[in-house]
Amino acid sequence: MLSSSIISTSIYNSLPMIEEQVPFDDATLRAMGNHFALYGVMDRVGVGLLHKHFKLSDAIMVHEGLTCKPKAITDTLAPSGVSFFWDGQKFQAFEYDHGEQLNLDNEFLKAFAYHIEDHGLAGKVALSKLDSTHGTLMEYCEPATMSLICEDTEKIVGSEATEWKFEGAVPVIVGNSDGKSAGEHKSSGGSKVKEIHGATVPVITRGCARTASDDHKTK
């Protein structure tokens, strides 16, 4: 359910522009974060606003350090997915890097896909592989090269947030059951039931600087 295959140009260009998206409110983030806590993936992935900054031509966006720029699609190009969106059947990569392939349990992916569809978040939310080498990043655009340049920053205001990780809550096995209740998960491989202990806290990890007219700022 998680694909790092190279996205077609037409599908990538159909994704929403950053100016079309609005940051998630706290309740929406916490509800999504509960799934990450329940399945124990908070240290590997977070969520982001599904968006693009530029329309591409026979290229994909590839992260190299603090820069994300277009790379021509060739037969030898074999990147790893770093950002994914739900296309109705799978989580499809739309941004890439040269790191290790991300592996996530299908039970988590199925549950999160159901949550996305059930709450009308398809076309709005992305799964984002966490980057442990950097702290909080502010993203700027370089239109001449259609690149995105990130810089370390101490704080990002909520209106400029584009990616979040989750902290706080932990999954705890509470016993065996043949049913489910709110906030609990029954494993498909057995009857162990988990519930979340503690509050899920969304933490901003990346932002996109905006101008007064809500366009992205350039370098």
Commentary on this structure:
The protein has a 10-stranded mixed beta barrel with strand order 2-7-5-6-3-4-9-8-14-10. The protein has 219 residues and is mainly β. It has helices at 9-13, 26-38, 106-118; strands at residues 2-3, 45-49, 59-64, 67-72, 80-86, 91-97, 125-129, 137-142, 147-152, 161-167, 170-176, 184-186, 192-197, 201-208. The radius of gyration is 18 Å and the shape is globular.
What is the fold's blueprint, element by element?
Layout: E1 2-3, H1 9-13, H2 26-38, E2 45-49, E3 59-64, E4 67-72, E5 80-86, E6 91-97, H3 106-118, E7 125-129, E8 137-142, E9 147-152, E10 161-167, E11 170-176, E12 184-186, E13 192-197, E14 201-208
Parallel strand pairs: 1-6, 3-6, 8-14
Antiparallel strand pairs: 2-7, 2-10, 3-4, 4-9, 5-6, 5-7, 8-9, 10-14, 11-13, 12-13
Care to give the gist of this entry?
The chain is built from three helices and 14 strands. The chain has helices spanning 9-13, 26-38, 106-118; strands at residues 2-3, 45-49, 59-64, 67-72, 80-86, 91-97, 125-129, 137-142, 147-152, 161-167, 170-176, 184-186, 192-197, 201-208. The N and C termini lie far apart (37 Å).
Write out key terms for the chains shown:
3 helices, ten-stranded mixed beta barrel, three-stranded antiparallel beta sheet
Averaged pLDDT: 88
Radius of gyration: 18 Å
| Helical segment count | 3
Query: What is the string of helix and strand elements?
Result: EHHEEEEEHEEEEEEEE
Shape estimate:
globular
- Biggest sheet record: 10 strands, mixed, barrel
Structural class: mainly beta
Q: Determine the N-to-C terminus distance.
A: 37 Å
Main β-sheet, spatial strand arrangement: 2-7-5-6-3-4-9-8-14-10
**Low-pLDDT residue spans:** 179-184
Proportion in helices: 10-25%
- The total of beta strands comes to 14
Estimate what percentage of residues fall within beta strands: 35-45%
